[in-house]
Amino acid sequence: MKRVLVGMTGASGATYGVDFLRSSGQTVFTETLRDRFDIVGFDPRGVGASDPVTCLNGSAMDRLNALAQRRELRVIEDAAHAIGSRLGDRAIGSFGDLVCFSFHANKNITTIEGGAIVGGSPQEVAAIERLRFHGLLKRSPDEFEVEVPSGKANLPDVNAAIGLAQLQRLPEFNDKRRLLVARYFDCFRDQPLLRLPARGDEGHSWHIFAPLLPVGAHTVSRLAFIDAMATRGVGVGVHYPAVHLFAAYRALGYREGQFPNAERIGAETVTLPLFPQMTFEDVDRVFEATLDALAEVHS
Question: Is 107 among the catalytic positions?
Answer without folding.
Answer: yes
